[in-house]
Design brief:
The chain has a single domain, classed as Electron Transport, Fmn-binding Protein, Chain A (Pnp Oxidase, Chain A). It has 3 helices and 8 strands. It has helices at residues 5-16, 55-62, 97-107; strands at residues 19-26, 29-36, 38-40, 45-51, 65-71, 83-91, 119-133, 137-142. Strands 1, 2, 3, 4, 5, 6, 7 and 8 form an 8-stranded antiparallel beta sheet that branches. The protein is globular and about 45 Å long.
Amino acid sequence: MSADSAPEKALAVIASQNSCVLATIGPEGPYTSLMAYAQFDGGRRLILVMEKDSTKHRNLKQDPRVSILVDTRASGADRDLIVALTLAGEACLDADQEVLAEIFEKSHPGFPLSGRPNSVFVPITISSILMLNGPEKAQFFPLVQP
């Protein structure tokens, strides 16, 4: 695969999935959470929803840097054909909630956290991607924002 096609393949994987593992860092160390996401800006940004008093939200207030795992395991592909993406990015905690809610709701109609008064939508801007094609073929590249 050419270096030019790697970002396009990674963005296609992001667009084809809707769940991820979010890793944040807090006073007690790394913290991971299984999350639903909606993608926008061609997959260069993700929207997550969480409760304002959750550990992950408190962690993001202290350090907005995140790592996110998106993979194709759910497709039932043979292990050698699974694509796994490790996304590095940064959360923004003061984004327009109405716009984010509208985008998220299109991907996840009726999602339980969407309508709760204590919920917040958090956009993540992706800065780089490590893409694994099967267990041994890895490519790392920065993700240029438009």
